[in-house]
């Protein structure tokens, strides 16, 4: 496994360099989402740790950026990125290497922490997960560590949206289990007013996966927002 990879075609951001501040197998996260591409196993943690050496990450990034131009840097982990204690140091170093916007893809569960709050503006773009409209569905879909409370998390997510100086975006992963939630998630988005709504679905043969047509129907519900789906740009 490598902490820095790509460039790759990101459906969110174009040609992107990927950076994984966790870089662990099995994954390290505070969720066990039913649709997780990394599987349902992994290590459940809530405290921040230093998983990778930031100097090595930045050396890898420097080498890649010497060879390739990218539209963005996408920080997303084999687990929740903000569990990485040195995430801000990594972001600061990346900013010195490139003018491309730096994006973090997060589940938002750690926004209640003052240290995480102070680090959000290290990123030009924050993409935060929003799959549910209440605690009961949150438990069923995202299967969080028992220390994560949905209502408290949403309160701090809204605070983060209001205070973040960059672009604040929402990613909704639509699966069979939460289709009934979509109108209520739209209502939450009307409060958040995200700059972009990303609509995702697991792109593998599972009972949870939605078809292109199904996701297009979901997208109609979000017509008040700028929307991009995981199928956009595919033939």
The CATH superfamily is identified as Aldolase class I
- Order of H and E elements: EEEEHEHEHEHHEHEHE
Instruction: Please report the distance between the alpha carbons of the first and last residues.
Output: 30 Å
Helical stretch tally: 7
Q: What would you report as the Rg, rounded to the nearest angstrom?
A: 17 Å
Overall shape: it is: globular
> Helix proportion of residues, in percent?
25-40%
What average pLDDT do the residues reach? 94
What is the structural class?
alpha/beta
The percent range for strand residues is: 15-25%
What CATH first level would be assigned? Alpha Beta
Q: What number of domains?
A: 1
Spans where pLDDT lies below 50 across 5 or more residues:
none
Tell me the CATH architecture: Alpha-Beta Barrel
Give the number of DSSP strands. 10
Widest β-sheet, arrangement of strands: 1-2-5-6-7-8-9-10
Secondary-structure blueprint:
Blueprint: E1 4-10, E2 14-19, E3 28-29, E4 43-44, H1 54-67, E5 72-75, H2 87-97, E6 102-106, H3 114-119, E7 125-129, H4 135-141, H5 150-163, E8 167-173, H6 182-192, E9 197-200, H7 212-221, E10 227-229
Helix pairs in contact: 1-2
């Amino acid at each position: 496994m490598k902490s820095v990879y790509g460039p790759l075609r990101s459906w969110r951001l174009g040609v992107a360099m990927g950076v994984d501040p966790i870089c662990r197998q099995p994954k390290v996260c505070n969720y066990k989402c039913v649709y997780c591409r990394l599987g349902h196993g992994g290590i459940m943690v809530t405290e921040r740790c230093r998983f990778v050496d930031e100097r090595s990450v930045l050396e890898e990034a420097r080498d890649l950026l010497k060879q390739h131009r990218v539209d963005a840097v996408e920080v997303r982990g084999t687990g929740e990125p903000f569990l990485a204690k040195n995430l801000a140091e990594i972001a600061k170093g990346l900013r010195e290497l490139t003018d491309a916007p730096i994006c973090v893809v997060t589940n938002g569960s750690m926004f209640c922490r003052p240290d995480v709050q102070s680090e959000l503006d290290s990123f030009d773009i924050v993409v935060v997960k929003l799959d549910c409209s209440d605690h009961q569905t949150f438990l069923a879909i995202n299967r969080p560590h028992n220390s994560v409370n949905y209502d408290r998390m949403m309160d701090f997510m809204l605070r983060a949206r209001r205070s973040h100086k960059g672009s604040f975006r929402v990613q909704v992963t639509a699966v069979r289990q939460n289709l009934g939630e979509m109108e209520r998630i739209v209502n939450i988005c009307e409060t958040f007013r995200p700059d972009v709504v990303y609509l995702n679905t697991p792109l593998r043969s599972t009972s949870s996966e939605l078809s292109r047509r199904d996701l297009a129907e979901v997208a109609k519900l979000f017509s008040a927002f700028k929307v991009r789906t995981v199928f956009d740009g595919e033939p």
